[in-house]
Predict the structure.
Amino acid sequence: MINKVILIGNLGRDPEVRRLESGAAVAKFSVATSESYKDKNDEWQKSTEWHDVVCWRNLAERAERDLKKGSLVYVEGKLTHRKWQDKEGNDRYTTEVLANTFRMMEKREASAFQGASGTPNQEKATTPATPAPAEGDDDLPF
């Protein structure tokens, strides 16, 4: 059986890192993936999906150090589901990607060279961050 998730997307916010009593670090962040398609009127549409990602221990510490809102990141892990209760005692369900690795990625401009001089372009393209969906702090188990 296989449970494997691979995402390439942008962070919606800086990772939120907590430390347990044992000292183990746990990080949570959201990753946006987007795709474009033509609708029935032959017009381009963009669809964005948000994915909650959790990582533990050394990987969480790396996320805290290296990842920032808007960063382009490759994440590999597995899909997990969990049930928890909010402050009012209501059952809540969460689907997350439990990361076992991630890599920082960098978008490059379409042309790596400027003009006819053949000198490399020193400017790096930036990827605009898409805001994360609003969530009430009361609903978060984290």
